[in-house]
Design brief:
single chain, alpha/beta, Arc Repressor Mutant, subunit A, Aspartate Aminotransferase, domain 2, Aspartate Aminotransferase, domain 1, 3 domains, 8-stranded mixed beta sheet, 4-stranded antiparallel beta sheet, 16 helices, 40% helix, globular, disordered N terminus
């Protein structure tokens, strides 16, 4: 087993780049896997590579560690760091054999398209998204104690007494009373005038995106995604055989200018009510421009409305789907909603609103083939919880609680962290986006240090980017933690960042 010489790997690092050096190294090595690096190839030791590249050793160990965590590399005792052999990482000749296995690529290409299994493995390798521990300042955690325990328990107990009513095979489109409940709910809260038959119940927003991919598009078609954006969504689209097109943002959200400049787009996946991760709210004129683009091109808009209920100050804007329907023309928007942030993640129920009954029936067919149905027991519980007015009351309590916790986070960040960063203004959701002043301060390294040494969970902002110039910063969750826990965590974060800035 020979070590690959560094000059054979074509790795160069640019100290003037806005990308941290460890991120540059990570991308450079990952790019070589399957091209110049193959299963079993040994990489230079971290100390040697750091010396050759003229960087600190921590830069190399951070990049290597991330590549190991994602399955690209593995550390073998007595050998060193090698390219992993368990993730279908093959030499180019393995993709051009005459065996005839798999699908054939473009005419004359001599290659086959990656199989579904290979695309799944690639998604696992490429993902930087991980489930966070229940530690401050985890982004996804709601307040688990805020659910009205007595009323919720009563409803669950009552429905559980007659399990035969809801534990058989259910309708793929959803429990009919629940579909009507959702139709009423989105009409009252999001301005969407729809029929219950246009609602399809899903196991979360991710399945809604998968249904869109299966029903609305052919394999290989191009879908615009926000850059920066929510990583799991774009991986899901690629897994299902679609080409994702990173599309930049401006101060109003997804750039319609960039959409118009791109060729052959069949859809855009957007978070207009609370862009993830930047927190922007798409203004009305940009929403109209986005709808006009969809109608002119025949493209679809997939609207991910994951937390529009949590706006602090002022009523939420009408959903894109509401504007789409109000114009009286054939709809181009598929609306996706979820209860993950309002109830808890383990209660994984979402829904979509199709632009017509005909499209909804197609989604029902795909749902039938994918997982047959979503738990009718859970649907029945939510039907009673929402229909009895308990959900609305729960949301009001959440907003009061989260607004206080958000204010506590803003105060703590202003007190302890103003010397090295700033918050992006936002009055919605369960997280804040904090930007570092110094573009060379690695958010990946900061996030890892906080997690390992301080038991503080954050997300590195730079990992949300694809092609747009990445900004360094942190996503900081506040919903699931007390004001005291938030202040303590922010203070510890500030101390750790200052230590890293001083090279300690």
């Amino acid at each position: 087993m020979l070590t690959k010489p560094i000059d054979a790997l074509d790795i160069t690092l640019d100290s003037a780049s806005p990308l941290p050096l460890n991120e540059q190294l990570y991308r450079a090595v990952r790019e070589q896997i399957g091209k110049r690096l193959f299963a079993g190839d040994k990489l230079p030791a971290s100390r040697d590579l750091a010396k050759l590249l003229g960087v600190g050793r921590v830069t190399v160990t951070t990049a290597y560690g991330r590549l190991q965590a994602e399955g690209f590399l593995e550390a073998k005792p007595g050998v060193g760091t090698v390219v992993a052999g368990r993730m279908n990482i093959n030499r180019a000749e393995d993709w051009t054999s005459d065996s005839g296995a798999g699908e054939v690529g473009p005419a004359g290409s001599g290659s086959r398209a990656p199989s579904l299994g290979e695309r799944a493995a690639e998604a696992v390798k490429a993902s930087t998204f991980h489930v966070q521990a229940l530690e401050p300042l985890a982004v996804i955690n709601p307040d688990f104690d805020s659910l009205p325990g007595r009323k919720w328990t009563q409803i669950v107990a009552r429905i559980s007494k007659s399990p035969w009513q809801h534990n058989g095979y259910a309708l793929p489109g959803g429990f009919p009373p629940f579909r009507k409940t959702i139709a009423d709910y989105v009409r009252q809260t999001r301005g969407i005038l729809c029929e219950p038959e246009e609602v399809v119940i899903t196991t979360g927003i991710q399945q809604g995106i998968a249904l869109c991919a299966e029903v609305l598009f052919n394999e290989g078609e191009r879908i615009a995604v926000e850059d920066p954006g929510f990583e799991p969504h774009r991986h899901a689209l690629r897994f299902l055989g679609l080409e994702t097109v990173p599309t930049p943002l401006d101060e109003s959200g997804l750039s319609t200018k960039a959409l118009k400049a791109a060729d052959g787009l069949r859809a855009a996946l957007v978070t207009p009510s609370h862009q993830y991760p930047m927190g922007t709210l798409m203004p009305p004129d940009r929403r109209r421009a986005l709808l006009a683009w969809a109608r002119q091109t025949g493209a679809w808009i997939i609207e991910d409305d994951y937390d529009s209920e949590l706006r602090y100050g002022g009523a939420p804007y009408p959903a894109l789907a509401a504007i789409d329907r109000a114009d009286g023309v054939p709809g181009r928007v598929v609306y996706l909603g979820s209860f993950t942030k309002m109830i808890y993640p383990g209660f994984n129920i979402g829904y979509l609103v199709a632009p017509s009954v005909e499209v909804a029936l197609a989604f029902e067919g795909a749902k039938l083939l994918l997982d047959r149905h979503t738990s009718e027991v859970h649907q029945a519980i939510l039907t009673e919880f929402i229909g009895g007015g308990h959900y609305d009351a729960h949301i009001r309590r959440l907003k009061r609680l989260y607004e206080k916790r958000r204010a506590a986070a803003v105060r703590a960040i202003g007190r302890f962290c103003s010397g090295f960063g700033r918050l992006i203004p936002s009055n919605q959701g369960t997280h804040l986006t904090f930007l570092f002043h110094d573009p060379k301060l690695s958010d990946v390294e900061v996030s890892e240090r906080l997690r390992k040494e301080e038991r503080i969970e954050t997300r590195a902002l730079s990992l949300c980017y694809q092609k747009a110039p990445a900004q360094n910063g942190l996503l900081l969750g506040f919903a699931g933690f007390t004001e005291s826990e938030i202040e303590t965590a922010v203070r510890k974060m500030a101390i750790a960042v200052e230590a890293m800035r001083r090279g300690r």
